[in-house]
Amino acid sequence: MRARGAIPIRLVRLLRNLLFRRRVERDLDDEVLGTLALLIDEKMRAGMSEADATRLARLEPGSVESVKEAVRDARAGAQVETFVGDLRYGTRLLRRNPIFALTAVLSLAVGIGATTAIFTVANGLLLRAAVGVAEPDRLVDIVRTERGAGPGVSEISYPEYLEIRRRTTTLEDVFGYRYELDPVTMTVADQGASRVFANTVTANYFTVLRVSAAAGRLFDTGDGEAPGSSPVAVLSYQFWTRRFQSDPALIGQTIRLNDHPVTVVGIAREGFRGTGVLAADLWLPTAMIHVVRPEDGARLLTAHEAEWLMLGGRLRPGVSRAQASAEVEVIGRSLEREYPRASAPPAPPGVVIRERTAGTFDWSAEVASPIPYGLRTLAAGFLALLLALVSLVLAIACANLAGVLLGRATERRREIAVRVALGAGRRRVIRQLLTETMLLFALGGACGLLLARWITSLLVLLLPAFPLPVTVSVPLDLRVVGFSLGVSLVSALLSGLAPALQASRADVVSALKDESAMATDGRWLRNAFVAAQVALSFLLVATTGLLVQASERVSRVPRGFDSSNVEVASVDLSVAGYTEASGQAFLRTLIERVRALPGVETATLADRIPGPGARSLGSLTVPGVAPPDGQPSFLRTGCSWNQRILPRSASRLSRAATSPRAIGQAPSRWPLSTRRPRSCSGSERTPSASPSLRGLAARQERIGPGPSSCRWLRSSPT
Amino acid sequence: MPHERASLLQGTLDLLILKALSTGERHGLGVSRRIEQITDGMFAVQPGSLFPALHRLEEAGWLASRWEASEHNRRAKYYTLTRAGRRQLGEETAHWNRIALAIARALKA
Hints:
The complex is a heterodimer of chains A (718) and B (109).
Chain A: H1 6-19, H2 21-45, H3 50-59, H4 64-74, H5 78-96, H6 98-127, E1 139-146, E2 156-157, H7 158-167, E3 171-177, E4 182-187, E5 193-201, H8 205-209, E6 213-216, E7 232-235, H9 237-244, E8 254-257, E9 260-268, E10 282-285, H10 289-292, H11 297-300, E11 307-315, H12 321-338, E12 361-367, H13 373-411, H14 413-421, H15 426-461, H16 478-504, H17 508-513, H18 523-556, E13 567-569, H19 580-596, E14 617-620, E15 633-636, H20 658-665, E16 697-698, E17 713-714
Parallel strand pairs in A: 5-10, 7-9, 13-16
Antiparallel strand pairs in A: 1-11, 1-12, 2-11, 3-11, 4-5, 4-8, 6-9, 7-10, 8-9, 13-17, 14-15
Helix pairs in contact in A: 2-3, 2-4, 5-15, 6-13, 6-15, 6-16, 7-12, 13-16, 13-18, 15-16
Chain B: H1 12-21, E1 26-27, H2 28-38, H3 47-59, E2 63-69, E3 75-81, H4 83-108
Antiparallel strand pairs in B: 1-3, 2-3
């Protein structure tokens, strides 16, 4: 029945009512009082005395205030006004009771802050593309997953990348990058050598991601894709600042990477550290893959079997991820048909090959995020567990606050009874109490958001020292703010509703007359909140205890060797320019000298430290079997035992504090640290089959620029 | 003293106000008196219902108002029907007549 043109008029009125409140109120006052005067006039004209007329006139319309109140309720924006009024009243109450307000807000801040912090990490790792790219929502990850395979990273070959890029119509462009970083020896004129981590990316990487340059230029179409044709590199902003003190003169200079001359053409914008979780120091175009992979670089650019790229793409405007995914699936299927995989050679007797990449694959386009698609379920599961745990903290805070609010409602039943006696409906009372609770939670949520910032940066700081630089950027975006707002509102409703309902049930007469009437009424509810709080706290303590125990048990799992009193250090001799031959000689001397140290029982060298997670992903040659194309087959192996392990024992190296330093500072080289294993015999693959070992392995971490220096790290289980 | 002799049927208040204003500009009390007059004293609208309704109708765009000095040098708010209000009055009258007819028929049956 309402006229259609009414909406803009009502909107204008709403704004007027809210913005010019004072004037609107004065008009209302004039109107009601004016009517009253008219009424008095009318009665006096009928022959009444002024006093009688005034008395009757005042009686007739009910109180002036109640008329005004009725008008206010009918006015546009009445809800907003009520809300603001409730909010003002709530603020006043909180200010009158600062201790309660402070404890409530703080306990909520801890709960909301912890939940938000975990969500921020999940958001940064799983739900959004890397930081520093433009229009991240239009980026997708192109993934190939093996059907039935467990969690893992599945890569795609360079020829397949070119094909997908050529055939796609739903994606603006497709880029590729290596999931792992490669350690490279960087030599800058007269400054000595240092180890840096390079990431090989396709020449269009920065263009598709729309990353801007902080200085110079990034890779562009001018950088050729033919092997060796574009000897250029782009540095990360952080590396440029840390290693070169943001020297603008570096751009255009030629540096040497693994002895190949490469020109630094530019610096990527601040904040961009690559598309994965590993933070690259510099990027090289795929055409320069031979710099990081001298042994098989050329093959990586041509062989369909050499899978080493992670792919991503940018959706064309108006194209959905599902459409792109359908197309990627079709392209992937036809690629599988056109380039069938050579079947793996039969295993020689005595060798059991557990995994081989010859299954069926699914192709799809997934939401772009730093964690590779194959590992997301794992990461999500872990984060969900953490989120559940911190939600318990929030639930405890809520139960606690609900109990306190209930107590306060009992104290305030006189006030509530007065409100009800003055004509406030039950809904109105509940609404007011809920608004007060919301205010408390909004404050808690705001503090929680600030706390979450701090907790996330603390989490990032507490990350264990990985052998590779890891980047975890956990930006605070709209989704995170929305999450903490939602969490605050829902928990406010959950913990505020019961006390509000209880309080609004106040029996006016008994509440005004008798002090203790309702105190018994809400008691069971309050007890329930206390019980819930205790139960949740117990659950939290128990779960945490179990988790701690579980992680302890994991570290105590027998590894087939005695890890007590073992110290680990690592060296990279390639940085100091050793060759394979001179490196071997150096290592022999090194190990002999370490063994001669007082307090060292024995020492040994290893390519990789045995332990959980020490799997190598690389080439495997089986002695006596020639690979079909003359190249090692790319198999994922459980091979972590291609090291030369000397089954003698050493111990108490840690106490010989000065001696390890002597080793570390010595120039060093060779395949101790992150180099890929070259060969592995099948029988050595399971750690449990290995003889008992106590010894020393070496591991190195670079600190700052300049000649190589070492920091000694304790191995984790000691 | 006129009292509320019959409770206003829901929705009829708006119609009565629109009707009372169809003959010209009035202030709040004038609207109230006019309603009493045209309903033969059947309805007396209390200010507690009248003023909220006037404000609501004004916000809906059916009434316009202006301030004018009344007899005793007081400001008084005078309401008039807008064009939309007149249309609304027509619609509501037709609607009400249909209902009244239907009820009358139902009661005769």
